[in-house]
Design goal:
The structure holds two protein chains of two kinds. By secondary structure, chain A is an alpha/beta fold. Chain A is built from six helices and eleven strands. In chain A, the strands form two sheets. Chain A has a six-stranded mixed sheet, with helices on both faces. In chain A, strands 1, 2, 3, 5 and 6 form a five-stranded antiparallel sheet that branches. Chain A is 31% helix and 24% strand. Helix content of chain B is 73%, strand content 1%. Chain B is built from 24 helices and two strands. Chain B is mainly α. The two termini of chain B are 32 Å apart. Chain B folds into two domains: 1-39 and 358-570, MetI-like (MetI-like fold); 67-235 and 302-349, MetI-like (MetI-like fold, Orthogonal Bundle), CATH 1.10.3720.10. In chain B, α1 packs parallel to α16 (402-411), α5 (112-123) packs across α13 (303-331) and α16 crosses α18. Chain B has a two-stranded antiparallel sheet. Classes of the chains: A alpha/beta, B mainly alpha. The A-B interface holds A 46, 49-55, 73-76, 78-81, 83, 85, 87, 89-91, 93, 100-101, 131-134, 147-148, 151, 153 and B 1-2, 4-5, 392-395, 463-464, 466-475, 481-482, 485-486, 488, 562, 564-568.
Chain lengths: 215, 570
């Protein structure tokens, strides 16, 4: 189920933020949109997720698995976002943070199983009862990704998810994130200003006005 | 972005509040205006005339009453405002300020009536202060026959009011000061050779004032029309206008109600003119002082000035604390002769008696307080959710003018429109219901709850709710499982404030309750004129502890609930 952006442009008071953008992301693929801060990368993500601010007008079409997204409200699009900050809920322990994202299950046991399996994949077994603030930056980033994926999104948007991590951590988390996306087999769209964030061999688009460079 | 399912409909909260506040207050004013024109069919008056007004102005002692009311009300307002500005200018951020910040909430939770009774026990001729220095320093073996407490000019009332209103204005100022860049401004001023106090007076206070304007108006209205504190601390023959009006309303002769209506409208006009006067004063000060701000003079106040302010604020803290302590002592006294500093025989008998006999009023107080604080919380959160929704969607925000509606009940003398509401309810045959009592409390509970919750609620990091929405896709579960639990501390705090405000209500309970509901507060005020200080102390402490208990629960329970969540302990 590919995510297709066709001729997307976003206008603020009649002037467009960037040149029309067309992009097809297949399942398990991560496409990257690059550009300096303020070029409209995050605005592009909010257009895809459905949280675009009313001051902007959106032109073009967005389809996920062939279904038109623009006519759907945010809560029915089923698209997840991973932000730069982990945004783990500070009043819930790690297990509850993950449980919050899991769609309703028949039993509590089943839910706990899902949580434990998820924690195992991230190498964080036994963390269910931990307080989020007791985790390291890298651990929080992994939990945050797991939480986004447990909501079973049909596509994932990544908004500079690695920029608050230091160099050594960044490498680890990056490969963890990309491998999980591949495993889930969903399309992902990454926006960043750091060329080192992009996955090898993925599509990279520079978001510029006037001259779009396709790599 | 589309409205979230459910959140888009939250506009009904501000609309409901503005509409119902408007209707209630208009009904209240109309219910006062008609009787003041001799129109009150329930007691057979249908001939429109100005007789109630003529009766009012020719009532014996009315001129003294008006004069005393004006003096105590305006002296209080002037005292509170100038002391607050001086305190902020001299002490912002230092040790005294920080100490005041710490004790502010418990101090504010003390009901007016309980404080007034304790304060009276301190300053009375036979009060604790005189006892402390007698007979050693004064030679008094019998209480002196001063008339300081309940003095005919209302000085003791004004001092009591200043002590009680000062912390309120400081609380409002603390909220506003967070929005001004104080450290940077002071630094910039100092770099230009101004002293800190001069930067405050020339730059920061003029910027702070607009944030405090409505609260200052509310203080003026309150000081001119206060009833419970005026009964306890004010003069008695004649009493202040508001007390006199209440007496007329409760007179067995129903014809007094007409004069009372005229009097309460006169009180309303006194408040209105005073507020108008302050409004024009503000303009005049702006006009005449604008050159002084830029005259370049950099000299500072003499240090003596600073120590005067220090002693006054220290005095406020001392009197507030000592008023509670003396209540505790009196409540466990069996025999305490003048001029002993402490009782000679102690007992818990009066507590046993007081707790037993106050059970019903306490239950009424608690249930009414809980109900009005809960409804207040639902309405406040509803409004603030509408705020969040309209901000996100760039749609019409119905909250833009809600402040003015919320402040209305605080700017009109309680007795003016509460009496009118009661008369309207009598006409509709709906007087004396518990639910109307709750609504009348809500008129005062809601504004304070809204003021206390809105700043923190609006500062909430909405990325958490955005993320939660993406994960869960259900607005109610995001609101109830993520946003409100994260805001638990300010939400409970606001609930406690609402409860405390409800506990302290005297006039609405007396008038709208139509005498059918007796709360701990009506008991305290009615007992205040009695002679058994021990019994009064027990009742006042019960009233005070109701407020304190809820406040303590609100502060402690988030700490217990989130004891192992470090991220929630900021």
């Amino acid at each position: 189920m590919p995510l297709e952006l066709e001729n997307i442009s976003i206008l603020k008071q009649e002037s467009s933020l960037f040149d029309p953008l067309t992009l097809v992301i297949g399942p398990g693929e991560v496409a990257t949109v690059m550009g300096p801060s303020g070029c409209g990368k995050s605005t592009l993500l909010s257009a895809v997720s459905g949280s675009l601010d009313k001051v902007f007008t959106l032109k073009g079409s967005i389809r996920l698995d062939g279904q038109d997204m623009l006519s759907l409200p945010m809560e029915e699009r089923n698209i997840g976002i991973l932000f730069q900050d982990d945004l783990l809920f500070p009043h819930m322990d790690i297990g509850k943070n993950l449980a919050f994202a899991i769609p309703p299950q028949k039993s509590r046991v089943k839910k706990n199983q899902i949580i434990n399996t998820a924690l195992k994949t991230a190498g964080l077994e036994g963390f269910a009862n931990r307080d989020p603030s007791s985790l390291s930056g890298g651990q929080k980033a992994r939990i945050s990704l797991l939480r986004s994926l447990l909501a079973k999104p049909r596509a994932l948007l990544l908004d500079e998810p690695f920029s608050s991590l230091d160099q050594t951590l960044k490498k680890k988390i990056r490969s963890f994130v990309f491998s999980q996306i591949k495993k889930m087999n969903i399309p992902a769209l990454l926006v960043t200003h750091d060329p080192k964030d992009c996955p090898e061999g993925g599509v990279v688009i520079n978001l510029n006005k006037e001259d779009n460079l396709y790599a | 972005m589309a409205h979230l399912k459910g959140q888009g409909k939250t506009f009904i909260f501000p609309v409901f509040i503005m509409g119902s506040f408007c209707i209630t207050i208009l009904a209240g004013l109309l219910g006062t205006l008609l009787p003041s024109l001799n129109y009150l069919p329930v007691i057979g008056h249908t001939q429109i005339s100005l007789k109630p007004w003529l009766d009012f102005f020719s009532y014996p002692g009315i001129k003294t009453s008006i004069r005393v009311t004006l003096f105590s009300g305006l002296a209080t307002s002037f005292g509170v405002v100038s002391l607050a500005f001086l305190f902020i200018s001299f002490f912002y951020g230092n040790a005294l300020w920080k100490f005041f910040e710490k004790i502010l909430s418990p101090v504010l939770s003390i009901p007016h009536a309980a404080f007034a009774i304790g304060f009276g026990f301190l300053i009375a001729p036979s009060g604790w202060l005189v006892r402390m220095v007698s007979p050693g320093m004064t030679g008094f073996v019998y209480p002196p026959d001063w008339v300081f407490l309940n003095d005919p000019e209302g000085v003791s009332l004004a001092i009591g009011l200043v002590i009680k209103e000062f912390p309120f204005l400081i609380m409002v100022a603390m909220g506003a000061l967070g929005q001004l860049e104080i450290e940077k401004t002071i630094l910039a001023g100092k770099a230009l050779g101004y002293q800190k106090e001069q930067v405050w007076l020339k730059i920061l206070i003029p910027r702070l004032y607009p944030h405090l304007r409505l609260s200052i108006f509310a203080i003026i209205a309150y000081s001119l029309s206060v009833v419970d504190m005026a009964i306890i601390l004010g003069p008695s023959s004649p009493p202040t206008l508001a007390v006199l009006i209440l007496k007329w309303f409760n007179d067995p002769d129903v014809n007094f109600k007409l004069m009372a209506a005229a009097g309460s409208l006169f009180l309303f006009s006194m408040v209105g003119l005073s507020i108008l006067f302050v409004f024009f004063m503000e303009r005049a000060v702006c006009f005449f002082l604008r050159f002084r701000i830029t005259n370049g003079k950099r000299r500072s106040f003499p240090a003596r000035f600073k120590s005067i302010v220090f002693f006054m604020v220290a005095g406020i803290i001392f009197f507030t604390g000592a008023a509670s302590v003396v209540l505790v002592i009196w409540s466990v006294t069996w025999r305490w002769q003048f001029p002993d500093v402490f009782p000679i025989v102690w007992t818990l008998k009066l507590w046993a008696k007081g707790l037993a006999s106050s059970f019903d009023p306490v239950m009424t107080t608690v249930i009414t307080g809980m109900a009005s604080a809960f409804i207040g919380l639902v309405l406040t959160i509803g409004c603030l959710e509408h705020d969040a929704d309209s901000k996100k969607n760039q749609t019409l925000n119905y909250n833009t003018y809600i402040h003015y509606f919320l402040y209305l009940p605080l700017l009109i003398p309680q007795i003016t429109f509460m009496a009118g509401i009661q008369l309207s309810l009598v006409i509709l045959g709906m007087d004396g219901y518990w639910i109307t009592l709750v609504w009348s409390h809500l008129l005062f509970v809601l504004p304070y709850m809204f003021i206390s919750l809105s700043a923190t609620y609006r500062a909430y990091d909405t990325r958490f709710t955005d993320q939660a929405m993406l994960l869960k896709r259900s607005y109610p579960s995001v609101l109830f499982r993520v946003k409100l639990p994260m805001l638990l501390k300010p939400v409970l705090f606001s609930f406690a404030i609402g409860f405390c405000v409800s506990v302290a209500q005297y006039i609405p309970t007396m008038l709208v309750g139509a005498g059918r509901f007796s709360t701990i507060t009506t008991q305290v005020v009615n007992l205040a004129s009695g002679s058994d200080r021990r019994a009064i102390a027990v009742y006042a402490l019960i009233q005070q502890s109701l407020a304190m208990i809820i406040y303590a629960v609100a502060v402690i329970s988030p700490k217990i609930l989130y004891y192992n969540k470090k991220g929630m302990q900021v």
